[in-house]
Amino acid sequence: MKAKSDIKTICVHEGELKDRRYKGVVSPLYLSSAYAFDGVDEKRYPRYFNTPNQEALAQKLAALEGGESALIFGSGMAAISTALLSQLKQGDHVVFQNDIYGGTRNFIKREFPRLGIEYSFTEGLTVENFASLIHSHTKGLYLESPSNPLLKLVDLESVAQMAQNHGVWTMIDNTFASPVNQNPLALGIDIVLHSATKYLGGHSDISAGVVVSSKAVMQSVINSARNYGGNLSEMMVWLLERSIKTLALRVHAQNENALQMAQFLDQHPLVTAVHYPGLKNHPDHILAQKQMNGFGGMLSFELHSEVNTLRFCEHLEMIKPAMSLAGVESTVIVPRLASHALLTEEERLEQGIGASLIRFSSGIEAQEDLQQDINQAICKSKNEN
Predict the structure, then answer these.
(1) What phi-psi label fits residue 86: left (phi over 0), alpha (psi between -120 and 50 degrees) or beta?
(2) Which of 9, 28, 47, 196 has a Cα at 20 to 30 A from 344?
């Protein structure tokens, strides 16, 4: 069969399981947790990450990122923690981008010290910021681009080349971009992570995570994963495969909505800053054009001091103040109270996460309705401090 190169076709057809008996067009769901052990080519078990549905979905996910192999987990943090621990041991050192997802940062600060793993956070996002922290015990660099929640970008190709020159691996959380908008492996990054709860799932009803890399790297990941037991249930695997069929359509619509919303907010008199790489005034706009296929469905903005941030959220009528992101419905959060609540106030301010910052996840609703809802909520919450 001819290779599937277009991402829309990959989303629908890659990794399909054939219904050879009834000829249905949807992949069959294998709910069994017990498989034969004698006379078989491979012993299968859900915790081994090799059931029929797990393997089929992994094939689709690897194809979406242009990788050789993939693994599906029960959450984004299960994927992140397993990937990191599979590559690190006591005495190793890893360099982390400073502004990363709060859950990842909390995991590092709580778990690494007791495991004897050393770490450093960069001061900025330049190649030099990463290179300056590499020493003899450094094994890898951890990136997140675009970052959560300020949508800052890292020059992935340049950092990857520098890392290769130093003999260290690179790992990136690609959740905010999705495989539709960015393919880090093609830019030289070694390991790609996703919280599949977000764009890959896309309907706010699945919790899952993904790791994609070469076969050699993924063997070490799966060896660790089988011990930690973070596999996704078969029903959720099947639902995730279903959801990914519309991934490209959803993300393209969310990209367009986010760009229009960013342009609208950029002109709003009660909004003091908009963080979105699709805006020409964004400091990383040119870099985004270079390494991304789309600017993404996420943005953040800062409200004027006259506007009460929490009351703004309460006054929204259609847009939902809710944890998580990237569903077909638009949502907002206040990062200091949600995604980055586990950080100290000092750490949040160091990253630029203030009290007036709102993170907006664009859905697929009509842009006119979204703008109307945002505007009325801003106006109602003015002078309610």
Answers:
(1) alpha
(2) 196
Question: Residue 361 sits in which domain range?
Answer: 247-381
Q: Indicate if 264 and 115 belong to the same structural domain.
A: no
Is this structure's pTM higher than 0.90?
Answer: yes
* Identified catalytic residue from 198, 336, 348, 359: 198
Same domain for 101 and 214:
yes
Block means of pLDDT (10 residues each) for the chain, 385 residues, are 74 96 96 96 96 98 98 98 98 96 93 98 97 98 96 98 98 98 98 98 98 98 97 97 98 98 98 98 98 98 97 98 96 87 78 90 98 98 83
Name the catalytic one among 155, 173, 190, 284.
173
Q: Are both 263 and 208 inside the same structural domain?
A: no
Q: Which of 178, 210, 244 represents a domain boundary (last residue)?
A: 244
Q: Under 8 Å CB-to-CB from 75, ≥6 apart: which residues?
A: 195, 197, 207, 208, 209, 230
Residue 101 annotated as catalytic: yes
